[in-house]
Amino acid sequence: MICSCIAWKVVIISCVVLQLTAVNGTLSKSDKKAKKAKQKDNSNVKSVFERGLVEAQTQSADILKEYYRYCEAERDKTVFKGKWNSKGYDIAKVFSKKFDLVSPVWLQVVSRPNNEFEILGGHDIDSGWAIEVMQGRDNLMVPRVLFDKWSLKDYENLFSREEFMAKCAKVITSFIKKHNFAGITLELWNQMPTSMQMDATHFIIDLSEILHKAEKSLTLIIPPLAVQPSSRVPQFTKENFEELKSSVDYFNIMTYDYHMQSSVAGPISPIKWIEESITAICPEDHEIDRAKILLGLNFYGIRFGEFSGAQPILGHDFVDILKSNSPAVKWQPKDEEHLYLYKNSKNGENLYLFYPSLLSIKKRIDLAKRLGTGIGIWEIGQGLDYFYDLL
């Protein structure tokens, strides 16, 4: 369990730029009425624990009956970080008190000629929504800043001189100050060549100093342990963590998509692999260091087909699949995930769907508590409403 002296937080990343597909399209009038009716029903709804839903043995019918019903009682806070789509905006408002950090995917850093830098995405900022979500908490909003479409030459130019790195850091910080954000969620480590890690570390430290002087925070997105056992040399090492831990406020580790690049059906985030990814960079049970790590928690699923390969599955897709196919549901004790089995009605293809469940999420929250980390949701708009009872 986490020591009482360390707060457990919640970080969320919002996806305004479509990366998959929107969870919900435009609602018809009847849909809106149904949605309002469902929301009204939640005033006296018991938690998923009280309803006995957090179980290994479950059925499609049980999920369809309960997935939209959530308990409105407040629970202890946790740290989550993820990205979202249109439904994520609504979720962030409804459950904002459960989250400590919200990170919308709005902003990109681009390299311009003559070593100039510019922040794009300002037109995506929804200030009215941000005010609603923050509810007076000025330290909540930490938008993602992505180094987008940078070439090798762009990185070489940035890292070639101290003044260029300082200029880029000041451009980012000035933009964040202008819009009164609490800080940033930096997506740089996964974008750049591995050979430039030393230069990137230098830049991140410089950026953190400028942000911290402005009383802004820095969360860094980092990769998990390599999937193949034969290549377990992580892109982000214990040495990287040691070098950066005094400069970075949080490290969001992307512990999902374990089998996404494989043609073989498999779990999204085996629980043993999650733990190994965390202990690989922070092996000691050090309270302060572990509290800086956010365990990545997926709220989307992945479907594997014999012919069609791997495809991401969002919440509305999942509900439609349950309604149309009534798949067999099996708990995978080794990986601690639920597997849904069914056939394509058109061509008979065997389909294997891994989608988060109440029990799989609870197992990962329990792991985060045991390891002393926070958690980061990727992404809230893709999950089912009753998932938030677990927070």
TrEMBL record:
<dbReference type="InterPro" id="IPR017853">
    <property type="entry name" value="GH"/>
</dbReference>
<comment type="similarity">
    <text>Belongs to the glycosyl hydrolase 18 family.</text>
</comment>
<dbReference type="InterPro" id="IPR011583">
    <property type="entry name" value="Chitinase_II/V-like_cat"/>
</dbReference>
<protein>
    <recommendedName>
        <fullName>Chitinase domain-containing protein 1</fullName>
    </recommendedName>
</protein>
<dbReference type="GO" id="GO:0070492">
    <property type="term" value="F:oligosaccharide binding"/>
</dbReference>
<dbReference type="GO" id="GO:0005975">
    <property type="term" value="P:carbohydrate metabolic process"/>
</dbReference>
<dbReference type="GO" id="GO:0008061">
    <property type="term" value="F:chitin binding"/>
</dbReference>
<dbReference type="InterPro" id="IPR001223">
    <property type="entry name" value="Glyco_hydro18_cat"/>
</dbReference>
<dbReference type="GO" id="GO:0012505">
    <property type="term" value="C:endomembrane system"/>
</dbReference>
<dbReference type="Pfam" id="PF00704">
    <property type="entry name" value="Glyco_hydro_18"/>
</dbReference>
<feature type="signal peptide">
    <location>
        <begin position="1"/>
        <end position="22"/>
    </location>
</feature>
<dbReference type="InterPro" id="IPR029070">
    <property type="entry name" value="Chitinase_insertion_sf"/>
</dbReference>
<keyword id="KW-0732">Signal</keyword>
<feature type="domain" description="GH18">
    <location>
        <begin position="75"/>
        <end position="391"/>
    </location>
</feature>
